[in-house]
Write a structure and sequence with these properties.
Helices cover about 55% and strands about 15% of the residues. The chain is α/β, with parallel strands linked by helices and about 220 residues long. The strands form two sheets. A five-stranded parallel beta sheet has the order 2-3-1-6-7, sandwiched between helices. It has a two-stranded antiparallel sheet with strand order 4-5. The structure holds thymidine-5'-diphosphate (TYD). It catalyses: dTMP + ATP = dTDP + ADP. Belongs to the thymidylate kinase family.
Length: about 220
């Protein structure tokens, strides 16, 4: 399917525990890509497609078995890859994605306690295209200590099923993210998100300019 004449786009995912300030930084990255004249789309998981958004509403609100939750995350991802992510990359556009599979390892694995072998099998099914595993080229992990994320969540008005979980759940999610980052240092960049927004954005500017320069060289 990939048009050989158009260089494939780059895939960037943004991750972090609830309350890490990910959404604010994601909008900034969107504006940065626009200012760099890099054609891109912004999308999210769970969601990103009409069916995926329906699954998202269920996942965030409806009580369900923990394995159903993991399976629906990957079902939404399959639809998202086929309908949105792969076509955009093939057109040469960059994809800025609010969460991807690392979130399943962190939330359904670290948070809920499902063994990672389950996700490895689903990942192969959903992300393996002809022997090539589709993974983000760059994953920005916005990391904050539990007291900071919990204080930020406490300020939100309506909490979803994940945000309502105990502090210990969020701590396990954070640790699972850090473990994922340690296991794949070539694609992860950990950003200390406990600092003021402007300081983080200065760091993002340097980080993204350097990465884009390197990856496009
Ligand atoms: P989030 O990305 O935090 O959106 P918002 O900023 O609008 O609240 O919400 C998505 C929630 O879904 C978040 O709590 C993490 C959870 N999630 C998983 O548990 N597993 C996954 O694989 C994904 C993609 C998300």
């Amino acid at each position: 399917m990939h048009n050989q004449l158009v260089p494939r786009g780059r895939f960037i995912s943004v991750e972090g525990v609830d309350g890490a300030g990910k959404s604010t930084q994601l909008s900034w990255i969107d504006r940065w890509l626009t200012s760099e004249k890099i054609a891109h789309i912004v999308t999210r998981e769970p969601g990103g497609t009409p069916l995926g958004e329906k699954l998202r509403a269920l996942l965030l609100n409806e009580p369900m078995h923990l394995e159903t939750e993991a399976l629906l995350m990957f079902a939404s991802r399959r639809e998202h890859l086929a309908g949105i992510i792969e076509p955009a990359l093939a057109r040469g556009e960059w994809v800025l994605c609010d969460r991807f599979s690392d979130a399943t390892y962190a939330y359904q694995g670290g948070g809920r306690g499902l063994p990672k072998e389950k996700f490895e099998a689903l990942e192969r099914w959903v992300q393996d295209r002809g022997g090539e595993m589709i993974q983000p080229d760059l994953t920005l992990l916005f990391d904050v200590p539990p007291e900071v994320s919990q204080a930020r969540i406490a300020k939100s008005r309506e909490l979803d099923r994940f945000e309502r979980e105990a502090a210990s759940f969020h701590e396990r999610v954070r640790n699972a993210y850090l473990e994922r980052a340690r296991a794949a240092p070539h694609r992860f960049r950990i950003v200390n998100a406990a600092r003021p927004i402007e300081v983080i954005q200065q760091e993002l500017h340097v980080l993204l300019s350097g990465w884009a320069h390197e990856t496009l060289a």
